[in-house]
Structures are given as C-alpha cells and as structure tokens.
C-alpha cells in the first residue's frame, strides 16, 4: 500500500509501541538510549543569527519548537493573549524577548522564572491591566523592561522585587494616574537609572510621594501628563541629568523650593508645556547652573520672550525651537544666544532670514534649518566661521549660487536633499575645503557642470541619488580624491564616458542601480580607474549579453579589490548570457548578485577568476540545469540563492564540492524530491529555504521528511507549510503530514520481534530439554522405526516371537513364576522378555522397538508400578503406535491390580486404550485361573485382522 496522509494514532497503537519498547529494553537489557533532539523545522518562525523570529505569524500562543540555544526571541505583532508558565521554560540562554504588539492580558505567575539570562523584555502595546505580585519572578538579571502602551491601572507592591538589576523601565502610556504607584515600583529597583512614565494621567507630582526611596535616576520622562502641580520639597532626584516634563495639556504650576534640587540636569525638554512665563523663568532658573541642552518646541508664549529666557542661561549650548509659525528670523531675535553651539530651528515655516541673524553666535557649530520654506541658501550662514554642520534639507531651494557657502571653510556636513535644485555651478563648493559629507539626493539635477572637478578635496560621502542625471562625463569627479562613497542610483544615467571616474582613487563604494546603463557602457573600461573599489552596484539596469562569447576586454579587470558586485536587469525582454570572462580580474570578489537578467545558462568557467567567492545570487533566471563543474573554482561558497529558476532538481550539488555551504535559498522552483545524497553533499548547511516547490508526496521523499523533523543542525524555513503537488489525490496536503511508515523497514520492531523469538525459542528449548528430552529420544527412534517399517513393509518377514512381554521389574516374580510356565511351558508360545532376550550393548529404545515389531503380539502386564515406570511408558507407546500404524490386533493388556478409573486419569494414553480395547484382570481370575489362561491363549492365537476377532476380544474380559 502506498503512503497516504497521516491520521491520528490510536491509543492501542501507542500502547503497542510502548509495550514493544518496554519488552525490547527488558530483553536486551539496554542501559541507556538517546532521544532525538527536535531540529529547526519550525512551523511559524525562522532563526537568524541565533534569534528566533516569529513576527506577524498570526500566533495565538507561544510556539514550543524553539531551539533552547537561541539568545533572541521576537514574537512581535501576533495574537497572543496569555503567557503561560510553560511557554519559556526551555530557553535558559535567552537574553532578549520581544512580546510587543500582541493581545496579552494575562501573564501566569512564574512565566518568566526560567529566563535566568534575560536582559531585555518588551511588552509594549498589549492589554495588561494589572501587574500582580511576583509577576516577574526569576528576572534577576533583567536590565531593560518596556511595558509602554498597555492599560495598567494597578501594580502590586512586590511585582518588581526580583528585578534587582533593572536599569531601564518604560511604563509610559498606561493608566497609573497616581505617582505613588510609581513609588511602589521603583522602591525595589536599586539599579534603576532611566524611568519613562509619560502619558499616565498624572495630575500632580509631589516629592513626598517618593520619599523613603533611594532613587539613583539619571533619566526621567514625565511628559504628556495633565499635571497641574509639580512640587519638589526634598532632594529626591539628586542624580537626575536628563528630564522631560513637557506636553502637559493643563496649565502647570512649578513649585521647586530649592534651586539645587535640579543642579545636575543637563538636558531639559519642556516641549508644549502649559505654564506661565514667570513659572517658566523659575523652572529655568532651577537648572541655571548645569543646563546644556534645552528643547522648547511648540510653546504658546512669545517666541522672542522664550529666546531671551533660554539664552540667558550661561551654560546653555544646545537649543531646539521647533514648530513655531515663523515667517522670518531677524538678528534681534537670537542675539542673546551667544553661547549656543547647536541651534535647531526646523519645522518653523521660515521663509526669510536676515543677513545678520547669526552674527552674534560665533560659536555655532551645528545649524538645523530643515523642513522650512527657504527658497535659497540664507546669506546669514556665511557669518558662521566655525560652522561644521548645516542642514537645509526639505526646503524650496531651486538654485545654488557661487557665494552661497562662502567662508564655510570649517563645514564638515552639508544637507541639501529634498529641495528643487535643478543644476550646479562649478564654483558653488569652492570654499568647502573640509567638507566630508554632502547630501544632494532627491532634487531635480540633470547636469553637474563640473561642480566636483576641482574642489571638495576632503569629501568622503556624496549622495546624488534620485535626481535626473543622464550621463557621467569624463573627469566629472576629478577633484574628489578623498571620496569613499558615491550614490548615483535612481537616476536616468545611460552614458558613462571613458574616464568618468578618473581621480576617485580612494572610492570604495559606488551605487549605480536603477539607471539605464547598458553593457556597452561598462565594456568601455569605465571602472578601470576605481582601483580601490570594494562595492559596485549595477542592479536594475539594461545590461544584457546576447551570446556567450568571450569579451575582448573584461569590464572589471582592474578591480582586483572588489568585494561585492551586483548586476541585474530592469527593462526589456529576451534571453541573456554572461560571457565566461565577465568576472576576470575580480580575484577578491566575495559577493556576486546576478539576479533577474534572464540568463539561460552559466559557462562552467564563469567563476574561475573569483576563488574567494562566498555569496552567489543567481535567482530569477531561466536555468534548466547547472553543471557541478561551475562550482568547482569556488570551494569557499557559503551562501547560494537560486530561487525562481526552472531547475527541476538539486542533484548538481552532489558533485559540486560545496562542503562549506551554510545558506541555501531555493524558493519557487520545480524541485519534487530532495534526496539524502543532496543533503549530505552540503554538510555545513545551517539554513535552507525551499518554499513554493512542487514536492512529491511519496516514498521518494521519506528520508527528506525524517531529516526535516530530526536534524538539529539545519533550519528548514517554513517546512510546515510545504505542500504536496503529486500525486493528484494528495495535492495541497501538507508535506509533513505524509505517513512514511510504509516506506521503510521498522528496524526497532524487527529488533523486538527477533529478540522476542530468540527468547521464546530459548525458553522452549530449555523446557523441552528439562521435561521432554525422553519424549524426543523416543520420537527419534520411533521415526527410525517408522522408516524401517515403511522400507520393509512388503517383505513379510516371519515374526521371531509370539509375544513381547512388557512389565515392570517389580512384577518380574509374577511373570517368571506364573506367566512363563503357562505360556511357554504348557501352551508352547515363544516369548520375548527384556531381561533375557534384549541384545546387550544395543540402545534400549532400539531393543524395545525390535522386540515389539519382531513379535506377533505385545502383552502389557500393568500395575501401579508399571504406570509409574518411564521405560514401561515407552513400551506401551511403541505398541500403541504399531497398533495405529498397522491397524492390526497386536496389543493384549493384563492388569495385575484393580486400578480405579480416576487413578488412570493422569495416564492419558492408557485411559484412551481402555476405552477402545478389552483387557484381562488377574485379581478377578483368582478363583478361575484356568479360564484366565485359556482366554490369554485365545488372544495369542487370534489372527491379525481385528475385524474378524471382535467377538473373541469382547469375550476375554472375565
């Protein structure tokens, strides 16, 4: 019978298997055995870098097939509603657990007790209402706990007592309402340094509510609470350095009796705080001696007044003023901010900035003017001689002039992305001699006009992606001798002039994906000048070769240090080839991506130039077959991507010598059978992805199924969703539900049967030898007699004796004194007696057999002693067999004693004979002995035909 879809095993079947195992262990005396360890074929998760990832898997419970060696477990965005006590009992080395974005409303006590190594726990955005006593027992090593976005109203006093190592706690966006509940939490957390309790409905904050707490907090976030009173009368936060108290929806009264209480606060965020100007002055005065960073966004006070208050703090160096509706900024507005080194004026709708605005803040190093409505670079920035970072992104700038960045010789980073710049001028960056990062992506530029020919000698990163560039001209980047990263992707580049990258001697990374570059452009040797290039991305272009001929000049022959090369197709139709010397010169290439260029085949010599290749992606091509010789030059390959091809088999791996392959992705192909030879050819494999293939659900895949379930080295991603494609009646069924019991011999059951039979045979032999050895000897000689009788049946040899006398030695006096004189002396019969006529030296059983078969009759002289005699029993057995065999009247029974029937019950053969035959009784013949001897004479005289002597036999009983 062929295999079918597996059904549930019955209790009887399980009982049989358990019984077999118990018997097997008992009989063979096995002292120990190994239980197979479940492998990495998980139903809803995958393992990546020792992290179990089960994100968005629609799980309603924590999966139990996670390997015990994982250090991270991500269960985000599922439908788990309860955490049970058994969910994490087998994860002793887990350090990070993500349970955010679920529906958890209940956590069993002790659910985390076995997570002795856990450092980070995330329970954000669930439905917890209460934190019960001892909820977090066992988490003594936890350092970070996030319970943001729940519905917590109540907290037991001992909920957090076991978390003695906790340094970070975020319990924001809950419904605590009373700051005393926070006190019940933090009183058990001696190592707590960061506390986030924003948006909890606190209306007041009094220091006396936190007394008796030894608080070592450095970070405290109280923002977005509707507080009306903030009162500090004791120094309960002596180590606080970062404080966020903004976002109150109610007007708050600030009451801090001693200005030294916040003397260590260096970063203060009062964004959106509703309070009077006088209270704000009081607040800022309390941090006047330590404050370095102030975030004061979206306040409802006069902007100038806020600037004057904040900039009067002598220690202030970082000021953030966002979300104000400013149309212009003048010099008088920020003239007091002379000590500010970082100024953030983003998201303020600024259109104009007067030329002298920043003249008074000569220490300014970072200026953020992003997300405003500036149409040009403000001239005011030229008055900042030590400015190092300038952010003008997300404005309305359409043109850059030669003097826009005059005198900016100290500038290190310039952000101009997401504007409307259509062109550059050759002089625009002339003074930016120390610039290292220039971001010009997401503009409208179609020409560079030599902007990078001469200047920017220290530029290391240039982002020009998402513009409208169509060509890279000769020497376009000649002046960027320090450039390391160049982004040109998402443009419309279709032309690469010879020498377009000349001067980029230190360039290590260039991105040219999603353009319109053709193969002719790269064949020119356009990349020959990039001798230090490590990464080249050419994916999603129009590179296509119509035949497999050898290129006269390999396009990357000078890039001996290239580490990563990506080449893929974006537009067009038709088949493609890859010249076999396409990779010539890439002796250090480690990653090659040639996905989706409609390749039909790869020449066997394609990779002879890349002996260091470790990652190969040839997915989304039309390979019908791959030669094992293709992989011979790359024995160090660790990752292979061959998804979405039309390969029908992975047999090429068997002889490909990929002993170091660790990662194999082969989705959506036409693989039907994965053989043992294939898997064993990649012994280092730790991850394989075979989703979307056309598996055969028959015995050809039996080994593969066993390997999926039992191996503990290789993760088979999504194996529980593999489906059958053949045979038709199983199409759509899950592959792992296939019953393969009929596909292989059950070795364990064979061992059980063999051992059982051996033991039973041993028991039978022992029993037979102990109790039936004489029966066996008798049967042996009886068999010989049968053969002899069959052989000489027709010879009709004359009988040697008239009768054989079978008797017990205890009855010998009667035989000698009574029987012999009458039968031999008076009646003249010739008798055979064992003490007189048996042949010396001959086996007893042979003498018995010869005597019985050599006599016409057998007379059994029966007494109780006779019945108990073993040899007498043998004699009557031989005689009864002759009676059965010859069907002649050859047996005469003479009883010397009256033996009741019940005493004959143990002697089955004797009792059976008495039921069918007449016998003579000596005790009954004491008064008529002559009649006894006469009847015995008649019995000896009768012929052999039993039918003719029936009357005579019946008349013999006295």
UniProtKB/TrEMBL annotation:
<keyword id="KW-0677">Repeat</keyword>
<dbReference type="InterPro" id="IPR035897">
    <property type="entry name" value="Toll_tir_struct_dom_sf"/>
</dbReference>
<keyword id="KW-0732">Signal</keyword>
<comment type="similarity">
    <text>Belongs to the Toll-like receptor family.</text>
</comment>
<dbReference type="Pfam" id="PF13855">
    <property type="entry name" value="LRR_8"/>
</dbReference>
<dbReference type="InterPro" id="IPR000157">
    <property type="entry name" value="TIR_dom"/>
</dbReference>
<feature type="transmembrane region" description="Helical">
    <location>
        <begin position="21"/>
        <end position="41"/>
    </location>
</feature>
<dbReference type="GO" id="GO:0005886">
    <property type="term" value="C:plasma membrane"/>
</dbReference>
<keyword id="KW-0433">Leucine-rich repeat</keyword>
<dbReference type="GO" id="GO:0045087">
    <property type="term" value="P:innate immune response"/>
</dbReference>
<dbReference type="GO" id="GO:0002224">
    <property type="term" value="P:toll-like receptor signaling pathway"/>
</dbReference>
<keyword id="KW-0395">Inflammatory response</keyword>
<dbReference type="GO" id="GO:0038023">
    <property type="term" value="F:signaling receptor activity"/>
</dbReference>
<dbReference type="InterPro" id="IPR032675">
    <property type="entry name" value="LRR_dom_sf"/>
</dbReference>
<dbReference type="InterPro" id="IPR000483">
    <property type="entry name" value="Cys-rich_flank_reg_C"/>
</dbReference>
<keyword id="KW-0812">Transmembrane</keyword>
<protein>
    <submittedName>
        <fullName>Toll-like receptor 22</fullName>
    </submittedName>
</protein>
<dbReference type="GO" id="GO:0006954">
    <property type="term" value="P:inflammatory response"/>
</dbReference>
<dbReference type="InterPro" id="IPR001611">
    <property type="entry name" value="Leu-rich_rpt"/>
</dbReference>
<keyword id="KW-0325">Glycoprotein</keyword>
<keyword id="KW-0399">Innate immunity</keyword>
<keyword id="KW-0472">Membrane</keyword>
<keyword id="KW-0391">Immunity</keyword>
<keyword id="KW-1133">Transmembrane helix</keyword>
<dbReference type="InterPro" id="IPR003591">
    <property type="entry name" value="Leu-rich_rpt_typical-subtyp"/>
</dbReference>
<dbReference type="Pfam" id="PF01582">
    <property type="entry name" value="TIR"/>
</dbReference>
<feature type="transmembrane region" description="Helical">
    <location>
        <begin position="749"/>
        <end position="772"/>
    </location>
</feature>
<feature type="domain" description="TIR">
    <location>
        <begin position="799"/>
        <end position="940"/>
    </location>
</feature>
<keyword id="KW-0675">Receptor</keyword>
């Amino acid at each position: 019978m062929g295999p079918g879809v597996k059904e549930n095993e019955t209790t009887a079947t399980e009982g049989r298997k358990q019984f077999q195992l118990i018997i097997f262990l008992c009989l063979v005396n096995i002292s120990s055995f190994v239980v197979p360890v479940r492998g990495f074929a998980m139903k809803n998760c995958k393992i990546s870098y020792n992290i179990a990832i089960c994100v968005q898997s629609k799980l309603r419970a924590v999966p139990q097939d996670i390997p015990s060696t994982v250090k991270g477990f991500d269960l985000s965005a599922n439908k788990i509603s309860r955490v049970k006590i058994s969910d994490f009992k087998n994860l002793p080395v887990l350090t990070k657990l993500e349970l955010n974005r679920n529906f958890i409303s209940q956590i069993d006590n002790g659910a985390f007790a076995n997570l002795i190594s856990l450092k980070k726990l995330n329970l954000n955005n669930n439905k917890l209402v209460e934190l019960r006593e001892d909820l977090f027992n066992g988490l003594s090593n936890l350092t970070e706990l996030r319970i943001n976005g729940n519905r917590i109203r109540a907290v037991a006093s001992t909920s957090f007592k076991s978390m003695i190592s906790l340094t970070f706690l975020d319990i924001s966006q809950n419904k605590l309402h009373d700051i005393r509940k926070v006190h019940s939490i933090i009183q058990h957390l001696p190592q707590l340094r960061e506390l986030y309790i924003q948006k909890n409905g606190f209306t007041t904050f009094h220091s006396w509510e936190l007394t008796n707490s030894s608080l070592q907090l450095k970070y405290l976030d109280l923002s977005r609470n509707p507080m009306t009173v903030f009162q500090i009368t004791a120094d309960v936060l002596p180590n606080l350095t970062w404080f966020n108290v903004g976002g109150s929806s109610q007007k708050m009264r600030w009451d801090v009796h001693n200005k030294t209480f916040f003397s260590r606060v260096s970063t203060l965020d009062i964004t959106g705080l509703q309070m009077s100007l006088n209270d704000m002055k009081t607040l800022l005065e309390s941090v006047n001696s330590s404050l370095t960073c102030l975030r004061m966004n979206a306040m409802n006070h006069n902007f100038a007044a806020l600037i004057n208050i904040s900039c009067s703090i002598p220690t202030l160096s970082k000021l953030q003023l966002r979300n104000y509706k400013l149309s212009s900024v003048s010099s008088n507005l920020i003239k007091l901010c002379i000590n500010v080194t970082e100024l953030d004026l983003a998201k303020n709708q600024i259109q104009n900035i007067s030329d002298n605005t920043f003249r008074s803040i000569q220490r300014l190093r970072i200026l953020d003017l992003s997300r405003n409505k500036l149409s040009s670079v403000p001239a005011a920035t030229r008055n900042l001689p030590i400015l190092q970072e300038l952010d003008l992104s997300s404005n309305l700038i359409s043109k850059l002039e030669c003097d826009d960045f005059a005198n900016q010789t100290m500038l290190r980073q310039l952000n101009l992305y997401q504007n409307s710049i259509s062109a550059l001028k050759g002089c625009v960056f002339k003074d930016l001699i120390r610039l290292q990062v220039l971001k010009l992506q997401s503009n409208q530029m179609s020409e560079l006009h030599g902007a990078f020919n001469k200047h920017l000698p220290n530029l290391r990163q240039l982002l020009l992606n998402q513009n409208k560039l169509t060509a890279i001209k000769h020497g376009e980047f000649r002046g960027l001798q320090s450039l390391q990263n160049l982004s040109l992707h998402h443009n419309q580049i279709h032309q690469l002039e010879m020498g377009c990258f000349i001067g980029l001697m230190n360039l290590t990374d260039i991105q040219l994906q999603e353009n319109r570059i053709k193969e002719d452009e790269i064949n020119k040797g356009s990349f020959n000048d990039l001798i230090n290039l490590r990464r080249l991305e050419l994916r999603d272009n129009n590179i296509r070769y119509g035949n497999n001929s050898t290129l006269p000049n390999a396009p990357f022959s000078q890039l001996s240090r290239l580490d990563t090369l990506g080449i893929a197709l974006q537009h067009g139709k038709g088949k493609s080839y890859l010249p076999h010397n396409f990779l010539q010169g890439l002796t250090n290439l480690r990653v090659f991506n040639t996905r989706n260029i409609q390749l039909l085949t790869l020449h066997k010599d394609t990779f002879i130039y890349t002996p260091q290749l470790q990652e190969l992606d040839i997915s989304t091509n039309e390979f019908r077959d791959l030669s094992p010789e293709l992989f011979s030059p790359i024995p160090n390959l660790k990752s292979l991507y061959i998804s979405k091809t039309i390969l029908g088999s992975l047999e090429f791996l068997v002889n490909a010598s990929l002993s170091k392959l660790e990662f194999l992705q082969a989705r959506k192909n036409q693989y039907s059978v994965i053989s043992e030879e294939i898997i064993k050819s990649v012994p280092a494999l730790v991850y394989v992805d075979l989703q979307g293939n056309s598996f055969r659900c028959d015995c050809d895949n039996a080994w593969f199924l066993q390997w999926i379930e039992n191996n503990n080295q290789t993760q088979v991603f999504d194996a529980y969703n593999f489906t059958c494609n053949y045979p038709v009646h199983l199409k759509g069924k899950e592959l792992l539900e296939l019953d393969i019991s009929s596909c292989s011999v059950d070795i364990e059951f064979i061992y059980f049967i063999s051992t059982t039979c051996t033991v039973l045979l041993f028991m039978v032999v022992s029993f037979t030898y102990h109790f039936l050895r004489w029966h066996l000897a008798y049967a042996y000689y009886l068999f010989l007699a049968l053969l002899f009788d069959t052989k000489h049946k027709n010879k009709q040899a004359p009988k040697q004796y008239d009768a054989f006398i079978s008797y017990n030695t205890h009855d010998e006096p009667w035989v000698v004194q009574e029987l012999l004189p009458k039968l031999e002396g008076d009646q003249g019969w010739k008798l055979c007696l064992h003490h007189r006529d048996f042949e010396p030296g001959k086996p007893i059983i042979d003498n018995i057999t010869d005597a019985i078969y050599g006599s016409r009759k057998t007379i059994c002289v029966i007494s109780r002693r006779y019945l108990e005699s073993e040899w007498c029993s043998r004699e009557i057995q031989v005689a009864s067999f002759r009676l059965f065999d010859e069907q002649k009247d050859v047996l005469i029974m003479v009883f010397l004693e009256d033996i009741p029937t019940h005493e004959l019950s143990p002697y089955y053969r004797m009792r059976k004979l008495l039921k069918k035959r007449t016998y003579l009784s000596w005790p009954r013949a004491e008064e008529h002995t002559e009649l006894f001897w006469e009847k015995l004479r008649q019995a000896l005289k009768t012929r052999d035909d039993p039918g003719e002597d029936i009357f005579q036999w019946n008349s013999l009983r006295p």
